[in-house]
Amino acid sequence: MLFILSALAPIFGLIVIGYLLKARGFLGDGFWAQAERLTFYILFPSLLVTKIGGAATAGADLLPMAGALISATLIISGATVLARPAFANRGLSGPSFTSVFQGTIRPGTFVGIGAAYALYGDEGLALIAAAIMAVIPLANFLSLVVLYRWTGEHLSPETQPGWRDAIIPAFKNPIILACLIGAGFNFSGFGLPPVIGPLLTVIGNAALPMGLMAVGAGLDFETVRVARGFVAGTSIVKLILTPAVTYALCLGLGVSGTPLTVAVLFMALPVAGASYVMSRQLGGDGPLMAGIITASTIAAGITLPVVVLLAG
């Protein structure tokens, strides 16, 4: 399982680089705010369009696996929302809850792509692409709804947004639009258009280093220390409970072999770095989100090989 550790090492390395650049004052605070905005509105959407639009899928044969992944995402997200009052009683604010929520359901696809390819070659790539198409739009949408709903808790009851106010803006979000555009290119059968496709690919390649360095720049270890219980709990849900639920659902839907292993691997990935950028842009708890991402990335170096071994 050394390839998984090799895949995680540069991701955590980029987080460390971002933290050091910020700590040493090499780049001013104004740079990181603009970098987050660029990543959220341009770089990450470009990456999603190219990854989803150019994905090679295997059609109806993957429907049971997709069903298990979608069901697991809905179950974990639903349970997290139901636990919101209990979290609030323990002092977790609305913006902080949105970070916990994202931390339970948003997988870091960069690690997944590398791991699936190293394990299963082209078949692994096709399966991980199907997993991305099944989970990423849904996870992004649910995260956006929660962000729009609970980042306004400081407002008065008359002005606080409700579910309708949360759902409608989510459809206008650049990440959701990118997922829909990418799916349109994919399902059309023509794939990414010439000129535009290569251009978006080049732009999207910058999303990983820029986004992860922004995560490092946003680290606040004092905040993580204070909220260490939520950081640890969220990481346990993401790295252990979520893949366990996925495994059970796969068995129930008759998914086996490589699709089963890849599905469980995908749901056992550390939290996506883009979660931090989304939190910062939409009023969530950025420092807590960065702490959850970092903690899950470090822990995944141990849990991910074990999960893959057990699922296989």
Structure described in brief:
By secondary structure, the chain is mainly α.
Model description:
- With 312 residues, the protein is mainly alpha-helical.
- The protein has 15 helices and no strands.
Topology at a glance:
Layout: H1 2-23, H2 29-53, H3 63-82, H4 84-89, H5 94-105, H6 109-150, H7 163-170, H8 174-188, H9 196-204, H10 207-217, H11 221-226, H12 228-252, H13 257-267, H14 274-281, H15 286-311
Number of structural domains? 1
The total count of strands amounts to 0
What general outline do the C-alpha atoms trace? globular
Q: What is the helix content?
A: over 70%
Sheet with most strands: none
Task: Look up the CATH topology.
Answer: Na+/H+ antiporter like fold
SSE order, as H and E? HHHHHHHHHHHHHHH
Helix tally equals 15
Oligomeric state, counting identical vs distinct chains: single chain
Name the CATH architecture. Answer: Up-down Bundle
**Gyration radius over CA:** 18 Å
Look at the structure and give the mean pLDDT: 85
Strand residue percentage: under 5%
* Poorly predicted residue ranges: none
CATH class: Mainly Alpha
**What is the structural class?**
mainly alpha
Distance between the termini: 12 Å
